[in-house]
């Protein structure tokens, strides 16, 4: 994919599929994700959706560790787009 394609906004169908894929088993993860979508869904790009998809491949506990900052992205997740989306997710941190 070139930069033009990856920087394009998600269409409604792709956004709907992404929201479905982001459903999690832990309420804590769902709270982060729902706040993320509430703030950012209208401006999500293909690149950001791919990064979010990579995070959704994690187990619920591993994802929560990243969201809470207990761990940093490693291996395949240690890339700029994932770090950026993780920052957006963390910025929508639920109240304690």
Describe this structure in a few short sentences.
The protein has helices spanning 3-6, 12-21, 27-40, 46-56, 60-67, 80-91. The chain is mainly α and 96 residues long.
Please provide a written account of the structure:
By secondary structure, this protein is mostly helical. The chain has one domain (16-91): Flavinator of succinate dehydrogenase (DNA polymerase, domain 1), CATH 1.10.150. Helix content is 61%, strand content 0%. The chain contains six helices and no strands. The protein has helices spanning 3-6, 12-21, 27-40, 46-56, 60-67, 80-91. Helix 3 (27-40) crosses helix 6 (80-91). The mean pLDDT is 91.
Largest sheet: none
Terminal-residue CA separation: 39 Å
What's the structural domain tally? 1
Number of DSSP strands? 0
CATH architecture group name:
Orthogonal Bundle
Q: What coarse outline follows from CA principal-axis ratios?
A: globular
> What kind of assembly state do the chains in view correspond to?
single chain
Q: Mean pLDDT across all residues, rounded?
A: 91
Which CATH C-level class is it? Mainly Alpha
Proportion of strand residues = under 5%
User: Compute the gyration radius: what is it?
Assistant: 13 Å
**CATH superfamily name?**
Flavinator of succinate dehydrogenase
- Which series of helices and strands comes N to C? HHHHHH
Q: Could you tell me the CATH topology label.
A: DNA polymerase, domain 1
């Amino acid at each position: 994919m070139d930069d033009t394609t990856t920087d394009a906004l998600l269409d409604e169908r792709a956004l709907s599929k992404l929201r479905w894929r982001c459903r999690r088993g832990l309420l804590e993860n769902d709270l982060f994700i729902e706040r993320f979508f509430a703030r950012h869904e209208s401006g999500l790009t293909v690149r950001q959706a791919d990064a979010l998809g990579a995070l959704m491949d994690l187990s619920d506990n591993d994802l929560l560790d990243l969201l809470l900052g207990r761990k940093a992205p490693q291996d395949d997740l240690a890339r700029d787009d994932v770090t950026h989306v993780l920052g957006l997710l963390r910025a929508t941190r639920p109240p304690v």
